[in-house]
Amino acid sequence: MIAVSYCQAVIFDCDGVLVDSEVLALEVELAILCEQGLTFDRIDYINRFMGLSYEAFHRVMDEEAVNRIGRPVSNQIRELLAARLRQTMIASLTEISGATAAVASVTLPKAVASSSTKEGLERKLRQVGLWDHFAPHVYSAEHVTHAKPAPDLFLHAAAALGIAPADCLVIEDSVNGVVAAKAAGMRCWGFMGGGHAHDGLAARLTGAGAERIVVDWPEAARLLPDVLAR
Questions:
Q1: CA distance 16 to 27
Q2: Please, are residues 95 and 127 in contact by the beta-carbon 8 Å criterion?
Q3: DSSP character for 129?
Q4: What does the pLDDT average to over 118-130?
Q5: Can you state the percent helix, strand and coil of the chain, rounding each to 5?
Q6: How far is residue 80 from each of residues 40, 85, 106, 156, 190, measured CA to CA in Å?
Q7: What is the CA radius of gyration of the chain?
Q8: What is the count of structural domains for the chain?
Q9: 40 and 113 share a domain?
Q10: pTM of the model
Q11: What is the mean pLDDT of residues 185-206?
């Protein structure tokens, strides 16, 4: 008889998993970068840059800009991008359908581990009514030295919960996030319920190490009891 290994905790990404922010951020970022002379294929941009921390995004975008247009751009776009993203999120952010119900059904220890800033993460979770489901276990890239795709943030969350990494299930929507979860020694599901999800993303998440793909929160809620400890 094969022994079944159950998870003792669930760690959720935020953007594109709990809140439908990635699709909003995508439009803002692509527009501002275009103003600087940097245009991207939408899907390539999602696959390469989504899931990075704020600082990592600016660092890699400067590298991209130097290679393509001969100059860095972060100094030109940093304040404008932050302001426009904040304005857009306050005006338009919603939870991903079914997220609150699914989160509430998880009675085991749970946390958020996100590449967002502390301030942005709290604002978004409060705006959609999810903050109290997780606090104080809400962790941003600012809690660690090395953000996703390094494993540090997920390891930090697991340590705070008091759960071994191997006993944690991560729910992620980006390749960078899946890579981070697997590097942390955790199980990981790829999530496709965000507005930014595209044909081909599921295969990329699986290729990065996601053991299962869930299309939305109702599906995830049906499946979670099968892998969580009773």
A1: 14
A2: no
A3: T
A4: 95
A5: 55, 15, 35
A6: 19, 8, 38, 31, 31
A7: 17
A8: 2
A9: no
A10: 0.89
A11: 93
CA dist., res. 17 & res. 19, Å (int): 6
Residues 167 and 186: their CA atoms lie apart, in Å, by 7
Q: Any residues with CB less than 8 A from the CB of 40 and at least 6 apart, and which?
A: 30, 33
Distance separating the N- and C-terminal Cα atoms of the chain: 19
pLDDT 10s digits, 32-87: 999 999 999 998 998 889 888 888 899 999 999 999 999 999 999 999 999 999 99
Give the Å distances, CA to CA, from 226 to 14, 171, 185, 211, 223: 23, 15, 20, 14, 6
Range of the domain at 36: 23-92
Please count the residues of the chain: 230
Token representation of residue 134: 């997780």
Say what the pLDDT of residue 4 is: 62
**Amino acid at the residue 140:** S
* Cα 14 to Cα 19, 73, 204, distances in angstroms: 6, 27, 19
- The contacts of residue 82 (CB under 8 Å, 6+ apart) are none
Instruction: Identify whether the C-beta of residue 81 lies closer than 8 Å to the C-beta of residue 19.
Output: no
From 2, 28, 4, 17, select the one nearest 210 (Cα to Cα): 17
Q: Locate 67 and state its tokens.
A: 């290679």
121 within a domain of the structure (yes/no) = yes
Assess contact for 137 and 112: CB atoms under 8 A.
Answer: yes
117 & 188 share domain:
yes
